[in-house]
Amino acid sequence: MESSAMQRTVRLLAGGKTSGEPVFEEVLVKELTAPGECRLLASPGLVLGVATEDILRVDSASGGFDVLTRGGNICIQLYGPPSVGDSVAPAIESLGGWSDGRVSKLTIFSLPATCGFI
C-alpha cells in the first residue's frame, strides 16, 4: 500500500440528480507532482469511466476530471445483495482481480485489462 502521507481523498463528479443537482464521490488517491494530478488507489463506486491506477487531472472546484493515463485496470460496479458480489469474487480473483470495497448493495472490483475479453 502507498504511504499514507501521500494519500488523500478528492471529490469527483459522478453525475447529476434529476433535479440537476450534481452528485459527487470521494475517492482515495495518491497525489502526483503536477498540480491537480493524482492516481486512483481504488476503483470508485459511482464515477464511471475510471479504475484503479488511472492518472487523473481533477478540477477541485467542480469535481470534473480528465483521464491522463489509463492504469491498465477495469472497474466493475456490481449492484445487488452482498451475496451476489460474494458469488462472483472467486471468478474475478482467478483472473487476477480484487475487491475494492462494498457499500450496502454495491460491490466494487478491479480487474487487470490484460485478462482480455471474450
Radius of gyration: 15 Å
Largest sheet entry: 5 strands, antiparallel
Give the strand tally: 8
Helix content: 10-25%
SSE series? EEEEEEHEE
Total of DSSP H or I helical runs spanning 4+ residues:
1
> Quick check: average pLDDT?
93
Overall number of structural domains: 2
Low-confidence stretches: none
Q: DSSP strand (E) fraction?
A: 35-45%
What global shape is seen? globular
Determine the N-to-C terminus distance: 31 Å
| Helix-strand makeup class | mainly beta
Task: Tell me what you see in this structure.
- The protein is 11% helix and 45% strand.
- It has 118 residues and is mainly beta.
- The chain has two domains: 4-69, no CATH class; 73-115, no CATH class.
Tags for this entry?
mainly beta, 2 domains, 8 strands, 45% strand, globular
Summarize it.
The chain is mainly β and 118 residues long.
Mind sketching the topology for me?
Layout: E1 7-16, E2 22-31, E3 37-40, E4 55-58, E5 65-69, E6 73-79, H1 82-94, E7 98-103, E8 106-112
Antiparallel strand pairs: 1-2, 2-3, 3-4, 4-5, 6-8, 7-8
